[in-house]
């Protein structure tokens, strides 16, 4: 098979990204909100956009969902060009904003029926869709209750159910669990996972809960001052920042001191606990690194009683990569700082 034919076949069979954005820009007067953002979101995945308040997360969602225009860049959403075919984009997306959009003076069933009417589903199809969604989101028993009496978790589930009335293939969730208690938040996580794994829906998620992104996202991008400062899988991002280490615990002083001597070149000033007989050794947590560490100890005839791996979490990534001056940018995945 020729190289040219292989390339054509690969191109023909490669899945079309749900979202591609190149050089996305948006300003309000002299205030630059988005400064050349590049994004690619795979179909049937969860993509999380993180960033501090004012970083531009909601603006990204508003642009990609056609709620506001952009000042520059090329964008395709669901196979449709955002500038040339906004109606095509709207036909394949759903949006759940930061604040509930349901009508508290209507019941849950009436809210869903109204959305079905707005989507022109027809009375029979619309009512059937309402009952299906009430059942799926565990709201059937509260279907005739006024939404004003719903708990926060119930309102957010109804909000997402209304987004699904039109059966979108791509859903924008802008901080969907803000204000929810831990149990309600985890219920929403299960619903979001089910949309992706069971129905192949693509989720574009913005959140300030870093655990939420860690739990749900296949890939994460970090936005700061309107620029992407990092992008990758949760694991890749955690490896961008220092602080990962292996803690070794020993049961006798002789083995502990022998290990300290054997590892003296690796300890790099990290604390040792002479009372607890523990050492901390810098490590990225990968199997190859752990094997090399154990082989080194074995070569010196030393065996640890217990080994535990500690890696940076997304909180560490967030703190390390955001809040820097606009003149400093962290390149995606590599974490290498560059200036503009």
Can you lay out the helices and strands and say which pair or pack?
Elements: H1 3-13, E1 19-28, E2 31-41, E3 46-50, H2 57-64, E4 72-77, E5 80-81, H3 86-90, E6 93-96, H4 108-118, H5 123-136, H6 152-163, E7 170-174, H7 182-199, E8 202-206, H8 210-216, E9 219-224, E10 227-232, H9 234-238, E11 245-249, H10 253-262, H11 264-267, E12 272-273, E13 278-282, H12 287-299, E14 306-310, H13 314-321, E15 328-330, E16 337-339
Parallel strand pairs: 3-8, 3-9, 6-7, 7-8
Antiparallel strand pairs: 1-2, 1-4, 4-5, 9-10, 11-13, 11-14, 12-13, 15-16
Helix pairs in contact: 4-5, 6-7
Characterization of this structure:
- By secondary structure, the protein is α/β, with parallel strands linked by helices.
- The chain folds into two domains: 15-92 and 168-239 and 313-340, Rossmann fold (3-Layer(aba) Sandwich), CATH 3.40.50; 245-310, Alpha-Beta Plaits, CATH 3.30.70.
- The chain is built from 13 helices and 16 strands.
- It has helices spanning 3-13, 57-64, 86-90, 108-118, 123-136, 152-163, 182-199, 210-216, 234-238, 253-262, 264-267, 287-299, 314-321, and strands at 19-28, 31-41, 46-50, 72-77, 80-81, 93-96, 170-174, 202-206, 219-224, 227-232, 245-249, 272-273, 278-282, 306-310, 328-330, 337-339.
- A hairpin with a 2-residue loop joins strand 1 and strand 2.
- Helix 4 (108-118) packs across helix 5 (123-136) and helix 6 (152-163) runs parallel beside helix 7 (182-199).
